[in-house]
Amino acid sequence: MARVIFHKSKKGSMKWIIGGLIGACLLILSSIFLILYPFASSDKKVYFQGEHPILFAGIQKGNALMEGSTLFVPITFMQENIDESVIYDEKSKSVIITTKDKVVQMPTDSLTYYVNQKTVDLQLSPIISRKGEIFIALDPILSFYPIQYKKLPDSTAIWIQKDGEQYENGRLINKDINKEMLRLRTEPTWRSPYTAEMTKNEAVTIEGVKEDFYLVRKANGIGGYLKKDYVSKQDTVKVKISRESKTFQMPKLNGPIQLTWEAVYTKNPDTTKIADLNGVNVISPTWFSLAGSDGSIKNLASLDFSKWAQAKGYQVWGVFSNSFDPKLTHEAFKDFETRQTIIRQLLHFSQMYQLQGINFDIENVNQEDGPFVTQFMREAAPYLHDAGLVVSMDITFSAGDNNNWSSFYERPKLAQIADYLIVMAYDEHTGASSGAGSVASLPWVERNLQNLLSEVSNERLVLGVPLYARLWKEQTNADGTTEVTAKALAMDQVKTWLAEKGLTPANDEESGQNYAEYYDEAEKATYKIWLEDELSLQKRAALAVKYELAGVGTWSRFFGDQTAWTALDLKAAKALTQK
């Protein structure tokens, strides 16, 4: 009896095991089916947020305001998407817009705005403030930017388009399809939430593709993903918007730029004592400098000097400097009205002294004030160009952060504003802190030049060249320490010093220049000098030719001798490199 019971129990157990395995398999298969089968989500997601959403570049970028029939967009939208240089000037309570040929001032809550200081009257203020946020009317600024907008039907949204944007028109197929399949999805899968429902034969714009889905948009601006099979492509639309602007025609120069600065500290030089500057086609006298925080300018200009220079065939680009005063620069450059005061004076002086250009020498500026300098240049260039003046600006090589002589320059932006940037490629070694060395060794210049050309195009760049050398003195003191001092010498002064000491310079491979050294037994001092002579200047001219730069500029005319102008002849340097 016990044996029979044993066999029955075993048979029943097998059935349970087999049944359990089958059930488990069914459960696994059903789970896989539920996971992999694309059941469409019925969750709906709100596409636009707030009133008057701004549709731009395929997504919502904030919200506009509607005052009557006028649309306003936040200034932050303009700065982040259309023109980062749009600013709000706190002192004048104005929005400032600059283009290649215009400076636009739009005061808040005013029926008048100004284009190049000429008034434009409106029925409604183009600038309004709401809850601490600044808004700009769209219609008045359309003439300044290659943009257009549409108010979308059955929606409060506006669609802002830029020149060059491209999309395709499409239409849903004319067949009855399950409505879940015709819902616009937030992701290219039916399991994602949907934003809107479509109907057969409905028109859409096709803005992208991902996997087996198109990214499409309804006429009311709501977008999402839809299976490719349900959309037929039609024509391609490319947005074309042109805005007219004046093209500045620079005064013609004979060949590449060969500029020399004329250092004017108290009075202008006696022109009867200036020999011919062979090859030079621009003289840039240091005539104008910032005098006060109100934008007043110190003026050392001379009409007689200007007439003399032009009679010799030289253009005259008057230098304006910030007096190398960081505090004064901050106070004068931070406000629109003060910047305009400076610009108006420069325009007046350019007429008074018959100038062909203005050279901006802005140095020793706090890093955080760099954007003020850039904005000043943005606002100056349209006025100066309208007056027929060349706009050039002096810059340095990059020398790291928190350096008042380097880090404030926004070089790529300045290169888009000025006609020329002149890099002051010297002062590699300046004093005891740097130690004795060349004013500008050739490898140092070329290495930094290569780096700069990644930010500034060569046709806008002028290579600044030193015509002076530093005579270094390393003297051992009684306590065993070494004191290092230096003084700048003009080219003819160097030749005189070499002759007095009976020295013949030798080539220094490391600097690429001629070098001389002298030990003075009485002083217990060693003198060192890296020469600026025909050899080094020819090499600098060759660099300008090698990198196809716009030209060279020399600091300064006073330091050079007659050999300098011949050595820096870019036409001759180009002919030499082509042999």
Number of strands: 35
Determine Rg (CA atoms, Å). 36 Å
> In percent, how helical is the residue content?
25-40%
List the total number of helices: 13
Oligomer: single chain
Structural notes for this entry:
This protein is α/β, with parallel strands linked by helices and about 575 residues long. The protein is built from 13 helices and 35 strands. Strand 32 and strand 33 form a beta hairpin. It is elongated, with a radius of gyration of 36 Å. It comes from Neobacillus novalis. One of its GO terms (molecular function) is chitin binding. Keywords: Hydrolase, Membrane, Transmembrane, Transmembrane helix. This is Glycosyl hydrolase family 18 protein.
Draw up the topology in text.
Elements: H1 2-36, E1 53-56, E2 59-63, E3 65-67, E4 70-74, H2 75-82, E5 87-89, E6 94-98, E7 103-107, E8 112-115, E9 118-121, E10 127-130, E11 133-137, H3 138-141, E12 147-151, E13 158-162, E14 166-172, E15 183-185, E16 194-197, E17 203-210, E18 213-217, E19 223-227, E20 231-238, E21 257-262, E22 282-285, E23 288-290, E24 297-299, H4 303-311, E25 315-321, H5 326-333, H6 336-352, E26 357-361, H7 370-386, E27 390-395, H8 411-417, E28 420-423, H9 442-452, E29 461-466, E30 468-476, E31 482-490, H10 491-501, E32 506-508, E33 513-520, E34 525-530, H11 534-546, E35 551-555, H12 562-567, H13 570-577
Parallel strand pairs: 1-13, 21-22, 21-35, 22-25, 23-25, 25-26, 26-27, 27-28, 28-29, 29-35
Antiparallel strand pairs: 1-2, 3-4, 4-11, 5-6, 6-7, 7-8, 8-9, 10-11, 12-13, 14-17, 14-20, 15-16, 17-18, 18-19, 23-24, 30-31, 30-34, 32-33, 33-34
Helix pairs in contact: 6-7, 11-13
Domain GH18: 251-579
Protein name: Glycosyl hydrolase family 18 protein
GO molecular function: chitin binding; hydrolase activity
